[in-house]
Specification:
CATH topology of the largest domain: Rossmann fold
Distance between the termini: 20 Å
Strand content: 5-15%
CATH architecture of the largest domain: 3-Layer(aba) Sandwich
Radius of gyration: 27 Å
Bound molecules: adenosine-5'-triphosphate, magnesium ion
Strand order of the largest sheet: 13-14-12-15-16-11-17
Structural class: alpha/beta
Oligomer: single chain
Number of domains: 5
Largest sheet: 7 strands, parallel
Number of strands: 17
């Protein structure tokens, strides 16, 4: 691995951000800094150059996916700074996610323009709020509520309204929408009706819960995510002296992904700007995917009306994707309707031709996940780095089955939200714990008998929930574990790179990385929702679960909502540089009725489908049938205890309902886990790539004595049978494995 820790801490600043899953990873690990301001322009085409050199007055860039909008604004800032026209500290670049902000800071440093602030609206506002709160309000800023859902549940209970899980999520969404559209509780019913919102409950009830929620927050002295913007807006509005101070600091504003700006963010931007006009916005109305939260592309599309003297630039060359991917993207947009669609721009690929997008129909979801995992393994074998591959889905709940399938295929993966590594709660807590332990030095009872650094780190982090094995399943618990495991790996690398390193050295290294946002890299396939994939790119992208009901999602009912779903698919398609795979399954579980249909958005585009507007993608080969459907049609999986048909992926793996009694041999399970951990260490892979917890449990329950019995356990494919079968059967037979089983 070229990412050894000591090496990185000496690397020139600005190179760290390419360790992640995004663009240009391999090609530009150590790029040269351009020699001059003019050299900064060297990497741009004529229109991008026009953006970069328009440093005065309002600028608006309207352009499709992959045309280099983000690149153009980054170079614009760097050019301005290098040419001495923009003071670095006077520029505020606003991006959509913390991760995009981190990336932009890194690229700016590479281009010789460090010191420019690149932040999300939220983090920029939070900083200002923290700074000005004592002066504007007095005392300390109230604590930030991390998740509102619990408080909303409490508010609903106090209002004597019973909400199920989905309603709770939807009501929370309504509260968020109200806040970003600056709607107070009393006005919610009228505002929701006016905006034609599909309300999950009676609007009056929601308004009541919303009011109670605000009350509870006040009582507890906490603020939520949206309050950060609302309060900043309030202070800037009410305190001209503070607004002046902020405006003296920031003179030039640049906003990426402007099509998804909310009214509240726009209000904040207006206040920051005051009566000045150094504002550069870039966006693509066809990628508006957050209107459900109150965002609107109107600000982008009306920019010229608000700023009649604006320089407007259009970019059409797509540098990201092959002609094949671009053809599909254009085809998707050609069917789009609505205001955003009127402004669409046909993309023109600048890349060499690549493979046609692959369309695959599978019999059921587990088969789809297995098929995707198999293709991913093939891609990796053909030389595509795992970190250059992504599986994108519509809702987070879809990730579990892909986690399982990738683990079964022995492919490491990482789940991606938008959060920066060092800002995750568990990472901050772990950092605090390590700092505490380092301060106590040898006097910490926890570390009494532990000498080497990695063991010390493991000991400290186990108090925070780190375990040698990952927890079963997915979701927040798994994410948390992944973060802690990444810290443990980082400590191991660090100790290897720096002999005699102490805990205090590691803490210093962590601080340095946190400042530079240099997250430890996980060389794995990315699993992410389409929403979280915004702005990113990979060599290979798998768009999965493309059925009616998932894409568009069932709750997209109005035409506008359906159009937003289409844009979401467009965002997905345009994340791929070269390999693009689209797939769907005809039924949810094996043996189920094949009642599902492929997404309507693919009609006329996927081979063999009727075109709604008589447009055909052509070129693409036929639709493949997933191998599961072709070779064997699997029957339904039944619980081996009660006989019920199983539908959950995890239960199918166990071959019984989660709550049916387990007849597992606990001692065998423990032996299997120990063996797995040794194997994982030898292979240098996460333990789940050997077998997942669920598969080990199924083995410990079934106690197979032959290859055939072992092979039928889900998660034990031919490859794993070949590799691990003898060991597992020996363990099941109660035999001791030879001590030196490290010959693998
Ligand atoms: P999105 O709409 O998805 O946010 P974007 O318009 O912001 O896309 P970028 O991410 O800036 O596009 O660029 C897409 C890819 O094309 C990146 O890998 C970028 O480095 C590359 N690229 C952009 N412009 C050029 C150029 N002039 N020469 C070479 N590569 C370029
Ligand atoms: Mg971009």
């Amino acid at each position: 691995m070229p990412h050894a820790c000591g090496q990185l801490s000496r690397a020139p600043p600005g190179t760290w951000q390419h360790g992640g899953v995004t663009a240009a990873t391999h090609s530009s690990l150590f790029p040269q800094m351009p020699e001059s301001a003019d050299a900064v322009l060297g990497g741009l085409d004529p229109e991008q150059r026009e953006v970069a050199t328009a440093l005065h007055g309002p600028v608006c860039v309207l352009a499709g996916a992959g045309t280099g909008k983000t690149r153009a604004i980054t170079h614009r800032i760097a050019y301005g700074v290098r040419a001495g026209i923009l003071q670095p500290a006077s520029v505020l670049a606003v991006t959509f996610t913390n991760r995009a902000a981190g990336e932009m800071r890194g690229r700016l440093r590479q281009l010789g323009a460090g010191g420019v602030q690149a932040r999300t609206f939220h983090s920029a506002a939070l900083r200002q709020l923290q700074y000005f709160w004592p002066k504007a309000v007095g005392g300390e800023l109230p604590r930030l509520l991390e998740r509102k859902i619990q408080l909303v549940a409490e508010a609903a209970a106090r209002c004597r309204v019973r909400l199920d899980r989905n309603e709770l999520r939807d009501v929370t969404g309504e509260i968020e929408w109200s806040k970003v559209t600056q709607t107070v509780p009393a006005d919610y019913p009228a505002a929701a009706a006016k905006s034609l919102r599909e309300v999950p409950r009676d609007a009056a009830e929601i308004s009541q819960i919303y009011a109670m929620y605000e009350q509870l927050k006040r009582d507890r002295g906490v603020i939520d995510f949206e309050d950060v913007l609302l309060l900043t807006v309030g202070i800037l509005q009410d305190r001209p002296d503070i607004a002046d101070q902020v405006r003296r600091q920031y003179v030039h504003f640049v906003v990426d992904e402007y099509q998804d700006v909310s009214p509240l963010q726009q209000r904040l931007l207006d206040l920051w700007l005051g009566d000045r006009d150094s504002l550069c916005v870039v966006g693509d109305a066809s990628q508006t995917i957050y209107s459900f939260t109150g965002a609107t592309p109107d600000h982008l599309l009306n920019f010229r009306t608000r700023h009649p003297n604006a320089t407007v630039v259009k970019l059409v060359r797509d540098y990201r994707s092959t002609p094949q991917v671009v053809h599909l993207a254009n085809g998707l947009l050609a069917q789009a309707r609505g205001r955003a669609a009127e402004h669409r721009l046909e993309l023109v690929s600048q890349r060499d031709p690549g493979p046609d997008p692959a369309y695959t129909e599978y019999a059921d979801e587990p088969t789809e996940a297995e098929g995707v995992a198999r293709r991913i393994r093939d891609l990796i074998a053909s030389g595509v780095p795992a970190s250059e591959i992504a599986v994108l889905f519509r809702i987070n709940a879809q990730s579990e089955i892909y986690e399982q399938a990738l683990a079964d295929a022995g492919v490491p993966y990482q789940l991606r939200g938008a959060e920066r590594f060092f800002e995750r709660t568990e990472v901050r807590e772990a950092g605090a714990a390590l700092r505490g332990a380092a301060r106590f030095g040898g006097n910490d009872a926890l570390l009494d008998d532990v000498v080497d650094l990695p063991s010390q780190v493991r000991a400290v982090l186990s108090t925070k929930g780190w375990t040698t094995e990952p927890p079963a399943g997915s979701g927040a618990v798994r994410d948390r574990w992944e973060s802690l495991a990444a810290l443990v790996r980082l400590a191991e690398d660090f100790a290897r790179a720096k002999e005699g390193a102490t805990l205090a050295d590691l803490v210093a290294e962590l601080d340095e990385r946190a400042n530079a946002q240099h997250a430890p890299t996980v060389e794995g396939v990315t699993l992410a929702s389409l929403h979280a994939a915004k702005g990113l790119e990979w060599d290979a992208v798998f768009l999965v679960g493309l059925t009616e009901g998932m894409m568009p999602i069932t709750y997209a009912k109005t035409d506008e909502q359906v159009e937003e779903e289409r844009r979401l698919l467009y965002v997905g398609v345009t994340r791929a540089r070269v390999h693009l795979s689209l797939s769907w399954a005809l039924s949810r579980s094996p043996g189920g009725r094949a009642s599902r249909r492929p997404s309507r958005f693919l009609s006329g585009l996927r081979p063999g489908s009727a075109a709604p507007g008589a447009r055909s993608a052509g070129g693409a080969g036929g639709i493949e049938r997933g191998s599961g459907a072709r070779r064997k049609r699997r029957g339904p999986v039944q619980c081996r205890v009660c006989g019920k048909t199983l539908t959950e992926a995890g239960e199918m793996k166990l071959m019984r309902c989660e709550d049916c009694p387990s007849d597992m041999d606990e001692a065998l399970y423990e032996r299997l886990r120990e063996w797995r951990s040794d194997q994982a260490k030898q292979l240098g892979q996460p333990a789940y790539c050997v077998f997942t917890d669920k598969t080990l449990m199924a083995i410990a329950e079934a106690e197979p004595s032959t290859d055939g019995e072992l092979a039928v356990i889900p998660g034990v494919g031919a490859r794993k049978l070949d590799r691990f079968g003898a060991d597992v059967l020996a363990l099941c037979a109660g035999q001791e494995l030879a001590e030196e089983d490290g010959e693998d």
